[in-house]
Amino acid sequence: MRCLWLSAKLLGSSSMRRGRMTDLLIGPIIAMEAPWDGISAKVDPHREGTLPTMELLQLPYYVPPFTRFLAYTADVITAPRGLLSVVTMRSTWARLGLLCPPTVVDPGFIGNITLEVLNTSSYPILIRPTDKIFSLVWMPLIDIKTVYEGRYQGQTGLQLPRPLGN
To answer: Catalytic residue among 48, 55, 116, 149, which?
Structure first.
């Protein structure tokens, strides 16, 4: 497991760096959403008992068509003050049909990044452990006083959804 401390020095010397982007490796486990049976309660993000059931799967794995899953970065990220980052899908994987909503990594965040991925193609796509499927795009901030102190701070590995609370 690599630990990435996003500083100008590290990003300038990283073999995974491409301009203002750093490639990220996918972790060895994904969480596949169980199919909805049409009977059970609908999801309420504020209530724990209604969150979707997820099955943990070891990579390599062929992701079925039109399937949503959670993945995480094999890399542990330490985002310093002064840098805002966004995780996106690398273009080759996107061209194959995988989509990942842009995910913001706030300054001060420490941990693995859990990401939602959707196979929008009509065929299964093989994902192997440590495939470089994500890119971390980083940019300097003007306000460097604000840092992340949220409920996912320090997360390790794949994190399933947590209720939003009040």
So the answer is: 116
Q: Which residues contact 53 (CB under 8 A, 6 or more apart)?
A: 33, 34
Owner of token pair 């300054």: 107
Residue type, 90: R
pLDDT tens, residue by residue, 54-64: 899 999 999 99
CB count within 10 Å of CB 131 equals 16
Global pTM reads: 0.78
Catalytic (active site) residue 116: yes
Q: What is the pLDDT of residues 7-19, one digit of tens each?
A: 444 443 344 666 6
- For the chain, give every domain's residue range: 3-33+53-140
DSSP 104-139: EE-TT-EEPPEEEEEE-SSS-EEE-TT-EEEEEEEE
- Range 3-33+53-140: architecture per CATH: Distorted Sandwich (2.70)
